Amino acid sequence: MSAKPSAVNSFLLPIFTLAQRELVRFFRQRNRVVGALAQPLIFWVLFGAAFTETFKPPPAFEGMSYREYFFPGTIVMILLFTAIFSTISIIEDRREGFLQSVLVAPVSRLSMVLGKILGGTLLAVLQGLLFLFIGWLSGIPLSPGVLLAVIGMMFLIGFALTGLGFLIAWRMDSTQGFHAIMSVFLLPMWLLSGALFPADGVPSWLGWIMRLDPLTYGMSAFRHVMYSRESIPGLPSLGLSLAITAAFAVITVGASTLMAGTRSTGDLH
Amino acid sequence: MAQQGGDSSIPPNVVEVDGLTHRYGERLALTNLSFSVRKGEIFGLLGPNGGGKTTTFRILSTLIRPTSGTARITGFDLITQAHDVRRSIGVVFQAPSLDKKLTAYENLMHQGHLYGMSGKALKDRILHLLNRVKLADRANEYVERFSGGMRRRVELAKGLLHNPQILILDEPSTGLDPGARHDLWHYLGQLSREDGVTSLLTTHYMEEAAHCHRLAILNKGELVALDTPDNLRAIIGGDVITIQASEPEKLQAEIREKLNVDARLMNGVLRIEQAAGHELVSRLGSALAGRMESMTLSKPTLEDVFIRKTGHTFWAETADDTAQNGAKREKVRP
Fold this sequence. Notes:
In chain A, 75% of the residues lie in helices and 0% in strands. Chain A has 269 residues and is mainly α. Chain B is elongated.
């Protein structure tokens, strides 16, 4: 038997290789590259055009066009879609048999989960960046300092969402099942996060749902960073938003690791 | 001569299975299975589909937990020391485990990283194995362009990449042509002799099972026999005569009457196990002249052992295997 690899190697190499595989596979499937970016772009252009006249920004966003308001929301949508696409591949990996060889490898389940999620997150950030560039070309203001902070936020939100996707996909035996969850759970989660409309002026029951939506806090943190503002009336504070988003990421990764650590016949097909 | 106080001629056990039992819900797939495998041995789990060999494979490769019972692999407990077990075993799946969007080389690179290997050592090892499975010239092609046999060879290279002490293979020759099958067995033999690598494999091919050093025959989740192929065949103690006829029941009665010999009727074929079978053949020939379609005299096969131990033919219970069944039985010819 080959020499026992160091603890660092046996923890980090699997993370690296699983993440790398996500990226390589993504770029070898051109339709995925197009699909993950085209839909949010279409949404942004169409909604932006449709609501330009009727959108009344709340005082906190005085003077902002709808296109500008919806821009961070579109980025979070890109993060969500990429997270979904990359974790749906868990179901395919299981069905096509690839996953079984990862499961019998001496890889800690934490590094397996982190590798998969990191790969999805990097893809999400890359596509977010591409969209940021499109936005910047069309007149969305963006300084280098803001850009860096925005990348950090995209990473954090992308990580949490990919973790959530992992959690949903792991025990699922069909991609159809995932699509169902996407329509009744993930998409509404995005709709109600403040991505599409502000919480100001919504009925109080809806306001409560929005407050309970973990993505509301990711969205809020993103807006703080994107507009470089320390506080935005009507949104949770930056500190609270960051704390909840980080907790969201830790919880999904932790739960995914526990779940992936259980040997079960459910892992077979 | 004796080293470290032990007898050096008997290699140590590297796999010790003790009372494995597994249920899928209500269905009992494996009942109290115990056996051990010595270092360097090629050990086969032979049985019909549903016999419990795939369940055993899944448990020993750490994919599923047994309902009860334990196993130790290179001294590590399968359940509590899974990480160490995983490091000592190389697993070759029956179902494909390659990423088809990656090249053969990339698949192996990925596998190496999962096992904590890297750098030049990993590259050298990959090239060495690709050479050995004769795919060095196709290393940079996407696996999706490979034939089934080529993919199986990459799978084998993948299982061997980290120099495991024990290879666990599920139906390794499925999808291989006869030439590749021969290569596989040659290679497993070489690994056993030169590197002391143990192979534990499942199979439902009788001919293939005969290449194993020792065989465990499983039926309905239970161990029915465990020995070397030669010893197993010796259980029958003599020859096997099979007779095909249009009215086998009549012949069966007649053989009993005239020759005082019990013939077993199975799937429309009469079978007689008999020491010094050639004498009986000539007596049968004159007694039943013209009423047999064929009569064969052969040394017992592993299938005969299976029949003796279970009371039914190997293929009798798997209706979906009738095509293979036909192919298998063609061995019996006049």
